Amino acid sequence: MIKKYVTERRSWIMLFIAQQLLILFVTFIDPTIPLRSMLYLVFLSMILFSIFFVIRYSKETKFYRSLEERDNDLDLTNIAEPESPFEKIIENSLSNQTVLLKQTASHNLMALEQEKDDLLAWIHEVKTPLTAMHLMIDRIEDETMKTHLIYEWLRIHLLLDQQLHQRRIPFIENDLYIEQTDLETIIFDEIKTLQSWCIHKGIGFDIKFEVTEVLSDAKWLAFILRQLLTNAVKYSQASDITISSYQRADQTILEVKDRGRGIDPKDLSRIFDKGFTSTTMHQDTAATGMGLYLAKKAAQSLLIHIHVESALGIGTIVTLTFPQKNEFVRITSV
Question: Which letter, b or e, does each residue of 106-128 get, where b requires 16 or more Cβ atoms within 10 Å of its Cβ?
Fold first, then answer.
């Protein structure tokens, strides 16, 4: 700060030094003026100026130090009280900008909340004609046409469901209800939803449950499994998907194993990134890159650890490791 202060007051310092040099110059060219007396006067002036400089440095930099040390937020309570007119101008300008920014942020937040509510309302409204559409599709006698329509209907249904949960996930802590959840019920419900798609692709399921209950939130766990099963079905052809659960070190493990196209090793570290699809399958325009990202976000709130192993052309194993019961104390006490 001292360097900045000297730079700021450089013109005043140079003016003082110039005055002292002028006094010495006049003394030098005018023999009637005693040189010793003038040198003494200059010396006293320098001492007085140094004391003045130190006092003013402490006083004038107090306000600016508080500006420099404050956090980058809209809280101005830690700023020192302005004393000079210029400091008051700066303080008023900051206060006005802070008020404007708070008003803008509040307006944007309200607009964002309104947009979220409108989108959620729209999604719920769309579900009604979507349900009616499914009933109409069931009446179609042409099996080939029916299969194709059900597949497209399912894609729309899954995308709407993904969008719905994407809007809810920032507030997931307010929506959690931890209880003993039946894995079989959730898995079979999700398989039933994907049934027509699986039949069309010739995909079956091999289910091996050693543990059938976990402590979790049923709705969000179903969402996580929906994303994993959808990916497994999407990237598999005429093969079985194995779903198994077992106990290991007092923790429940759930595995979803497919024999699909697999994931390139260079993509494994990025599959949970928002919007990431693939570096090898750019022609796959159906992928949104949101499913695994949202599944990971939901799993973190449920204290579920997701681990993925994959080999290109062989398949993928997704492992869900559920937390121990005492780990949920943190969630339920929030």
Answer: eeeeeeeeeeeeeeeeeeeeeee
Residue 38 identity (one-letter amino acid) = M
- Secondary structure string (H, E, C) spanning the chain: CHHHHHHHCHHHHHHHHHHHHHHHHHHHHCCCCCHHHHHHHHHHHHHHHHHHHHHHHHHHHHHHHHHHHCCCCCCCCCCCCCCCHHHHHHHHHHHHHHHHHHHHHHHHHHHHHHHHHHHHHHHHHHHHHHHHHHHHHHCCCCHHHHHHHHHHHHHHHHHHHHHHHHHHHHHHHHCCCCEEEEHHHHHHHHHHHCHHHHHHHCCEEEEEECCCEEEECHHHHHHHHHHHHHHHHHCCCCCEEEEEEEEECCEEEEEEEECCCCCCHHHHHHCCCCCCCCCCCCCCCCCCCCHHHHHHHHHHHCCCEEEEEEECCCEEEEEEECCCHHHHHHHHCC
pLDDT digits (tens, 9 = 90+) for 181-235: 999 999 999 999 888 888 888 899 999 999 999 999 999 999 999 999 999 998 8
Which of 300, 321, 303 shows the shortest CA–CA distance to 245? 321
Query: pLDDT of 142-190, one tens digit each?
Result: 888 888 888 888 888 888 888 888 888 888 888 888 889 999 999 999 9
Is the pTM here over 0.70, yes or no?
no
Q: How many CA atoms does the CB half-sphere of 154 hold within 13 Å?
A: 20
